[in-house]
Structures are given as structure tokens and as C-alpha cells.
Amino acid sequence: MEAVRVKLGLRSYYIYIGTGVIGNLGRRMKELACGKKVMLVSNPAVLSMYGDKVKKSLAGCGFKVVTAEIGAGEEYKTLATAGKLYDTAFTSEMDRRSPVVALGGGVVGDVAGFVAATYMRGVPFIQVPTTLLAQVDSSVGGKVAVNHPRGKNIIGAFYQPRLVLADINTLETLPPRELRSGLAEVIKYGVIWDSKLFTWLEEHIELLLCGERKALAHVVRESCRVKAKVVEEDETEQGLRAILNFGHTVGHAVEALTGYKRYTHGEAVGIGMAAAARLAEALGMLPGPDRARIEALVRRAGMPVDLPAGLSSGAVLESLYHDKKAAGGRLTFVLPEGIGKVSVRRDVKEEVLRKIIRY
Ligand code: NAD
Ligand code: GLY
User: Fold this and answer.
1) Where in the sequence is the domain holding 335, given as residue range(s)?
2) Ligand 2 atom with least separation from CA of 138
């Protein structure tokens, strides 16, 4: 078992990473000295696989568990789902000390975290991420949100968990497509911050795709380390934290234009990272061989690198301008200058962008 500390003063917390760490949930939560009534939020599929282990660990340490199921999938990351969770919390007489535990992927984590941030103005929040994406990204850093019909993650808050338990064993049951999707975010950390991690990925990507546990534990730990550093410096995204959106500007447009159905979030980010690398090369910021390394790794991780055929560059541009990150009409791009270093650019000319989109 390994631990990564996110240092945020009074809101600091540990991320415990390892095989079988779910069994320690009750003991770890006891250390937090929170209330004994716990709302466990998950979806039916994840509950059927890991619910019993979690409940056993909690009951063994004197916690009383109220289980709250939500539907699986992005379409349940809504205020309506949050409303049902508030109802359950209220009818179960949860108070301000009663913790909310999120067991699942990023959807469960985001919506349960949003409820934890807002029920009675905030109750203790614990993340037990069970997808690779959630273990390396969404469970760490405190972004919690639900979607609005007009946009993703529009209603949300920064609300740090008190504890994160990333059990590598849970990745064993993850569909291969979801595993690959999580790898997109791992590649992201390599490009934006950690060239050593990027090189390690180039050497070990096949092991990861086979679900080798030690390799997975390694990338979860290294990814959490990078994310912790960025969040410690800029918790509420006033500046530096924007680099975590590498690949997401074009990625979000691709997701939106394909109705959030054709691609997983990670696949869309893969396309977005490749597009950002091509853009950086076109702007003379990124040497060609580094662009090629980024594209090759995304491909080897089993993800697409090209924008979907049939999307007009006009539609992509329009979607980009609608992105919530378009500040004052200017698009924000996180662009690599090499492997391990990015900069945020708001001066990308439309004609260069059009050329990349048509590519
Ligand atoms: P997800 O939560 O939809 O999970 C994907 C699927 O995997 C679901 O069907 C789920 O039931 C299933 N699943 C989960 N764990 C499993 C396991 N161990 N075995 C088998 N199946 C399992 O998707 P995701 O990729 O984890 O998360 C995507 C969400 O995360 C998006 O809503 C995105 O906006 C959000 N996100 C948030 C942040 C953040 O910082 N808060 C960062 C990145 C992404
Ligand atoms: N996933 C982006 C962030 O946490 O800021």
C-alpha cells in the first residue's frame, strides 16, 4: 500500500493506493472521527461487485450504512439525482457529521461529492474510486459537479474529500474500453508535467493494457502525485490548474458534437491531446518528434487520434467557442512545448485552428 498526501492546510488528506485497500475503509474512516451514519452512494453494477466488501469494512468499525443507488452513466449526473440523494440523507436522519462515501467511477464521485458539499452546507466526503479515470483524476482535487441540460459540470463546487482509497483490485472487473479511457488521463500527466512518467508509459503500455497490477499501482500513484502538486499550488483553478485541461478543449467539443455517446471521456481527451499536439507543432512550439511521440502513445493505448470524419470544421469551431473555458470570446488551449511541459495559450489564430481541425 502507498500513500500520497494532498497538502491543503486544514483540508489536507491522504490517497491510499494498493490492492485490497477497500478492506481498510472502516478503519481509515474511524481515524477521521466523523459521524457513525454513512451514506454509501454507488450504482447497481458497482454495488453488486464491491458493495459487500465496503459495507463489511464499515460495519466492522461500528458504522451504520445507508445505501443510496443511482443509475449508471453520465445521464444520471444531474440535479434530479442529487435531489434523490438529499431525500435519502434527510429521511435517514443524516446530520452534519454524517459522511458520504462515493463508491464508483467519476459519475458517482462527482454527484455524491456535490451532495456532500451542499447537504447541510457540507458533510465529510470519502472517495472510493473504482475506475482508472476516477483513481488517477476525478477522485482527487475536489471538483464536484452535476450537469445542466445546457452544459457539462455547470453546477458544482470545489470540495475536497477527507480521504481517497484507490483499490487496484477493483480495476480487474473494468471493461477494457474504460481502462483505456483512464490511460488517456495518465498520458496527460506525462505530457503536462512528468516526462519520466511519459517514458515509463512508452515502455510499459502493454502491461497496463493487460491490467498488470503493479504497473497500474505505479501509474495511479504517479498520476496522483502530479495531480496533488498541481492542486496544492492552485486549488480553485485561478491559473496553473488549467493545465489539467490538456486535451479537454477539443475533447469536450468532440464529446458534445457526438452527443456524449460515441466516445468515452478518455477517448475524446485522446483526440483532443493529439489535436493540441498538432496545433503546438503548427505554432512552432513543439518539435515534430515530440508530437509524434504523443500521437503514438495515444494510439498504442488503444484510443483514436483523429477527429471523427463527417464533423465540419465550422461545427467544431462553434462548439469550441461555446466551451465554458472560452474567456471573453478567446479560446484557451493548453499546448505542449515538449514532453513534460505545457503552456496555456489564448492567442491561437482561427486560421491555424481551422487547418488543424481539417487535418
Ligand atoms: P463512469 O463513472 O461513468 O464509469 C464508467 C462505467 O464503469 C460505469 O458504467 C460504471 O458502472 C462502471 N464501473 C465503475 N467501476 C467499475 C469496476 N470496478 N468494474 C466494472 N465496471 C465499473 O465513468 P468514469 O470514466 O469513471 O468518469 C467519468 C466522469 O468523471 C465524467 O462525468 C467526467 O465529467 C467526470 N470527471 C470528473 C473529474 C473531476 O475532477 N471531478 C475529472 C475527470 C472526469
Ligand atoms: N480534471 C481537471 C481538474 O481536476 O482540474
Assistant:
1) 176-358
2) 1
